[in-house]
Amino acid sequence: MGMSSMVEKEEKRQFIIITGLSGAGKTQAAHFLEDMGFYCVDNLPPTLIPKLAELCHQAGNRLSRVALVVDIRGGEFFDHLFAALGELEGAGIDYRIIFLDASDETLVRRFKETRRRHPLAATGLVTEGIKRERKRLEELKTRAHHIIDTSHLSPGQLKDEIRRIFSTASPGDDLPVTIISFGFKYGLPPDVDLAFDVRFLPNPYYIASLRHRTGYEEEVKNYVLKWPVTKEFLTRVTDLLLFLLPHYRKEGKTHLLVGIGCTGGRHRSVVIAQELARMLGQRQIRVLAEHRDLGRKEVGDE
Question: How far apart are CA 36 and CA 100, in angstroms?
């Protein structure tokens, strides 16, 4: 049976492509999907993706949930990925790309801990390999349906996010939201759909006992949340997101990334991101909070 004759209801199937930076957690993500009942294939040459899709179709319900790990380990074969995706689209195969990312600092630390060599580090410098890999993956990242930054995620948190995204019987019935805190002094996250500046809120940095703490700690959280302006801001942003989500979903958006920024990304933005995620979660929204700059050693002027 040729791919063009696949007329069964593919939208009810789940065909997932896992990709992203080396060291960002792709193997872990595949293991979590396997635990959820997906048939997983690691390091599949992209040229074989259409053939696998056809075999899954022929297998019917026996292979209705499939996840593939595809990355630069495939060498020159990786360059055929976009052609393979084009074949899937031409055949009416619904697929989803999940892109795992992490900060350079996090990736370097993970490679050092595991003593592995980066696949693109010709001279042995991990930083060189990461730079080359980011460049090769730029276009693919723009086509991803789900982007997960694992810099500050534990394996358990990554598992929860994978479950939130892919455990529903009908993908797309709701719109997953990632709220990422960041510091403006380190730049705006490039992938955010909406960004909110919370530098107008009272700053814990100027309280000596709170300066070297983070938004994860109860004292900082209580300080940021005690102000009426904070409560009103959270209520207004929550209402705005609840209004926007169904409209974004209607237009085909599959993931919403919301940025919450303060000066250094350690105090106010962390508290607000955590609290906003809690409030949305109470409304049955699939939401994850991430903190891009929480682990930075520089405290600066928050």
Answer: 18
Mean pLDDT per 10-residue run, the chain (302 residues)? Answer: 39 78 89 84 86 78 79 72 88 87 87 74 74 86 87 85 66 72 92 94 92 89 95 96 89 84 94 93 85 70 42
- In angstroms, the CA 18 to CA 275 distance is 30
E strands, the chain, are 14-20, 39-42, 65-69, 96-101, 146-149, 177-183, 194-197, 256-262, 287-291
| Domain endpoint, select from 134, 166, 198 | 166
**Whether 11 and 151 share a structural domain:** yes
Q: Which domain holds residue 129?
A: 3-166
d(CA 174, CA 197): 26
Residue 136 and residue 80 in one domain: yes
250 in a domain, yes or no? Answer: yes
Q: How far apart are CA 118 and CA 281, in angstroms?
A: 37
